[in-house]
Design goal:
By secondary structure, the chain is an all-alpha fold. It has six helices and no strands. It has helices spanning 2-6, 14-19, 24-28, 33-54, 63-86, 99-109.
């Protein structure tokens, strides 16, 4: 969100913002933290659902690529967790998965 706002875009459709009682200008000022938290949760939920379903994809890939694909999906799920945890702070900067969590995934995928 912070990167989009820095470039002059919200990155979220106006009708979605309206559903959470937010406006594009709210995002550059001081929005209601609970409304922003609800918006973030709303945006992350479908991504998380898709990523969880994507856990089935590695079985469709050639064997040498399965571990890598599985690890990438798990890293994206960690990123979704980080986005959810950051909540309203996404207006101040991006969210990254835990380095330790990513390291664990990489070692397990090795």
């Amino acid at each position: 969100m912070a990167e989009d706002l820095g470039e002059g875009r919200t990155g979220i459709p106006t009708d979605t913002l309206t559903r959470f009682s937010l406006t594009p200008s709210d995002l550059t000022n001081t929005p209601d933290p609970s409304a922003l938290r609800a918006l973030v949760d709303h945006e992350v939920a479908p991504a998380r659902t898709s990523l969880e379903k994507a856990r089935e994809l590695p079985e469709l890939a050639p064997p040498p690529h399965r571990r890598l694909l599985s690890t990438l999906i798990e890293v994206e799920l960690l990123t979704a967790d980080a986005v959810s945890a950051r909540g309203a702070q996404l207006l101040k900067g991006s969210a990254s998965p835990s380095r330790l969590g990513v390291l664990r995934l990489l070692l397990r995928g090795r």
